[in-house]
Amino acid sequence: MKFYVKNGGKLILMRFDTGAFGSKWCGVWRPPLKLIEYWAFKVDDEWLSPQNCMGFDGKRHLYELKGMRVEEEVLVGDGVKIRLRFKGKRKGKVKVQMEVGINIRRWEENAHDRRYEVIGKRDGFLVKNELGSVRVGGGKFLRGGLYRRHLPGAYHDWDWLEEEQSVFVPGILEKEVDLRKVKEVTFYIEKRDFEPREMGFGYLSDFGFCYLAGFPWFLQFWTRDACFVMLNEIKKGNLKAVKEALLTISKFERDGEIPTKIELDGKAYYYSVDVPGLFVISLCRYLEASKDKKMREKMRGLVNRILRKRMEGLIESYGKDTWMDSLERDGYCLDVQSVWAEAFRSAGKVYGRADWVRRGEKIVRVINEEFWTGDFLLDRLGEDDITANALFPLFFKQLPKDKARKVLKRLESEEFTTERGIRCRSSEDELYDPDEYHLGRVWGLLTGMMIVAEENYGRPEKAEKYKEIIERNKGLRCIDGVDETYDGDSLIPMGCCKQAWSEVWV
């Protein structure tokens, strides 16, 4: 059993390849709201179900009924279109019924007691509560009105947290089909006519385009994740999309701060020490690639506000404000210094500011002198943790070749490298715990950064090895998806099954 995602840029469908909507994360979403818990079809007296689903080819679920094969194809964009195609020996008329489970709730919610208003339409119905509405059509509406609760996670044995969900069934849609004349029938959600599209991790919110962090859980714009996505999209030449994402994030700048997370209802949260620097780096990489002079001038003031607040000393971290946000990492962290060094150097080059370049170079010297142990780099000044954050100065090419070779050699060893990629912490570190998020798991992000690090120092054959690891990781739990993390010892996939910053490197 595998998960899959169809992201139309407005609506998102998540489901299992068996046809089951077997998780609270399955269904149709318009973030930050869920709309549809499930749908189910009955052809005469047979339900289309995981029991008679013969397979999924990436586009269609294939069902075997008595004397008939049914193909269910789902198209997603500003709406959802569900086509049933009938093949086989059965002739004459069949009755097709569609049951839809409605669950209009917020992203973070589970079971709730909201009541719904149902408005019958010419070929369907509109359902709404105080949060939102959804329209379903394609057949004659036979009114019902059943409220119930269920536990969708009972249909899988993955390590996802699954809580009870509320479902409202307003009735059924019914359509009679004469198989001698018609071989398919269509139902729809929200819009009957729209342009189907696959947006990957891109999403068209009401306030602009940006990149979602991962499916099924991170249906928000996480700026840190988006910046790593943009760095790769720039390399691939997708400059128009990157520009739109940068503009969207820039709308939320507040006095030189860039949000860590932007909910799709427009609420923004500011609590990460490295995110403004990563935004500056992504912006400058875009400007270098695009030669977009208007964008450069438009962003000049924003970049100045971000950098002028960090012109003195090393950048200090407090609490859980680094990318390792499950850990308290107070003090001067290597990854943070590396990000800000690159931000100052990049911006100085793009905007012709020698003082910014000097500021960046000064931080690089500190990395090479005060963080250097003789064969590796400290995670934090004054601490002896051995982590993969040594990758950051390699990723931004801030170490000389002799030091880089020593760090790469250790990262390439079994201490860090596994069959699934790079552990976030050395297996020899006393705090190493293979099951913990930032104490030992393997990360797709770090594996991708290792590709760039190897390329930066003229080791293309080594880079290819890590590209091959990411390719092998594709599709383990999600069709065409790469997982967020893996247990550091057992290498069992963990976290999101389709994570943007794990997937974008190849």
Describe this structure in words.
The chain is an alpha+beta fold and 506 residues long. 28% of the residues lie in helices and 28% in strands. The protein has helices spanning 223-235, 239-250, 275-290, 293-308, 334-351, 354-370, 391-395, 401-412, 444-456, 460-473, 500-503, and strands at residues 3-7, 12-16, 27-30, 33-43, 46-47, 53-56, 60-65, 68-76, 80-87, 93-106, 117-121, 124-128, 133-137, 140-150, 165-178, 184-189, 202-205, 208-211, 214-215, 221-222, 261-262, 268-269, 417-418, 421-423, 442-443, 485-486, 493-494, 498-499. Strands 1, 2, 3, 4, 5, 10, 14 and 15 form an eight-stranded antiparallel sheet that branches. An eight-stranded antiparallel sheet has the order 6-7-8-9-16-13-12-11, with no helix packed on it. A five-stranded antiparallel sheet has the order 23-24-25-26-27. Strand 26 and strand 27 form a beta hairpin. It is elongated and about 80 Å long.
